[in-house]
Amino acid sequence: MEANRFGAFFRQCRVRQGTALREFCRLHGFDAANISRLERSQLQAPKSRAKLEEYASALGLERDGDDWVDFFDRAAVSSGTIPADLLDDKELVSKLPLVFRTLRGGRVTREQLDDLIERVRKA
Description:
Elements: H1 6-17, H2 21-28, H3 32-39, H4 49-58, H5 66-78, H6 84-87, H7 90-103, H8 110-122
Helix pairs in contact: 7-8
């Protein structure tokens, strides 16, 4: 699923700006080879929040807007982690095994699922 990967999303955001790769890198002081590898998913998303914020800002993503959040979520998934803001919610984290079980096709009661949905909506 190319469209769901961090690198593809990064490229999509850059292209939407109308900026060629080398021009984007020149304008923002990034290494074109590294950004190219990142966009082709040959380089993992950085783990550094500061670096991700630098990239998101360079891509013109509105802080805390939908694309901003999506960018950070994709970076977390790319590195095999759960987004930090979700980990801060201890009650939500306690429900993650239910999500994992559901995704694996395990048996989940309707009540458990409704409870999880309600907690996610409140988060």
